[in-house]
Amino acid sequence: MEKIVVTGGAGFIGSNFVHHLVRETDLRVTVLDKLTYAGSRESIAGLPEDRVNLVVGDIADAELVDELAGTHDAIVHYAAESHNDNSLDGPRPFLDTNIIGTYTLLEAARKHDVRLHHISTDEVYGDLEFDDPNRFTESTPYNPSSPYSSTKAGSDLLVRAWVRSFGVRATISNCSNNYGPWQHIEKFIPRQITGLIDGIRPRVYGDGANVRDWIHAEDHSSAVLTILEQGRIGETYLIGADGEKTNKQVVEMLLRLFGRDADDFDHVTDRAGHDLRYAIDSTKLRTELGWSPRFTDFSDGLEQTVQWYRDHESWWRPKKAAVEAGYAAKGQ
Ligand code: NAD
Ligand code: TDX
């Protein structure tokens, strides 16, 4: 493998992966990204030009995707519409990108016999009860709740069908909630950090008891590279770092980092269909491929992430007012 395409490489997790590849491999990377509201050139700026180039385009553009598939050895597919709240307000772009976009990549991978790794989410499994002793595994039945997670589930099933019916050399990974640098400020952790920088009280949906299983984006990247290099074709691997926390706990930790009282936050209108709890069992990835997470101190990771947002205010500041106005209109 010498040349790979990273779709969505100018977004949050994709750009972290591109940085990881530049540091850890000799691969040359073509980022294919439409630069929607969620993508930014800055996230991959300053990387060596002989290693990384950006093609601005749509993964649903069959001609462009065919050309790139014909000239690269592998595709790692991150591009997606990724925010649950947006999918409740307007689902259509989620179908176009997550379903048709993935289908377009699969057809190109099939034609050119290109290795494909598909990035997905634990949300395809629906949610767990708070007291369920089980966590999600590779054999948990699909049961998505939102327009976002149902389109991700649909894309996973397309990949599985293209492997079985057409012999496409693909793998899938389903990861838990990521945090770290370059995450859009519409998402929970960066929304609260950038609010706290501005002195705004954090906004917690409902009673704040919902649980998310946090992993640092850098650990997600090392897991994806491990699967790309060593994963068995046709297999699915779950990626997680045993990071379960309630939303209330996360907000309390952030408030402490800002020297504020732990109860200095507001409860706001809950998300429709809000999943209660996600939790990943990543035993298969750890035992079969020998992967393990390195950034397991959530408190340290959160503190570094707060510092990152303090240091990159020029990146998020122009987006902040519009994001907050959108939430305010929904009582959130
Ligand atoms: P993001 O919204 O930050 O980035 C998505 C990127 O895809 C952006 O750069 C955007 O411009 C690009 N894009 C969107 N539509 C496109 C199109 N039609 N053609 C080309 N590019 C397009 O998302 P993220 O949080 O970095 O998520 C990346 C992937 O990881 C997604 O597939 C998501 O489902 C998955 N995932 C995310 C998380 C998480 O916690 N954020 C967890 C598990 C899995
Ligand atoms: O202001 C907020 N207050 C709040 O309580 C926001 C924006 C969110 N929340 C809650 C909702 C969730 O329980 O925080 C939790 C995390 O919310 P998001 O950051 O929107 O993430 P989530 O819906 O869990 O989905 C994320 O993880 C799985 C990513 O956005 C998905 O792309 C990924 O598949």
From TrEMBL:
GO biological process: nucleotide-sugar metabolic process
This protein's name: dTDP-glucose 4,6-dehydratase
UniProt domain NAD(P)-binding: residue ranges: 6-304
Annotated SUPFAM superfamilies: NAD(P)-binding Rossmann-fold domains
Keywords annotated in UniProt: Lyase, NAD
Species of provenance: Aeromicrobium piscarium
Reactions the enzyme catalyzes: dTDP-alpha-D-glucose = dTDP-4-dehydro-6-deoxy-alpha-D-glucose + H2O
Signal peptide annotation: none
Segments traversing the membrane: none
Enzyme nomenclature, EC number: 4.2.1.46
Homology family: Belongs to the NAD(P)-dependent epimerase/dehydratase family. dTDP-glucose dehydratase subfamily.
Pfam families reported in the protein's UniProt record: GDP_Man_Dehyd (PF16363)
First-tier enzyme category under EC: lyase
Cofactor(s) required for function per UniProt: NAD(+)
Molecular function GO labels: dTDP-glucose 4,6-dehydratase activity
Keyword Lyase appears in the UniProt entry: yes
Gene that encodes it: rfbB
Species lineage: Bacteria, Bacillati, Actinomycetota, Actinomycetes, Propionibacteriales
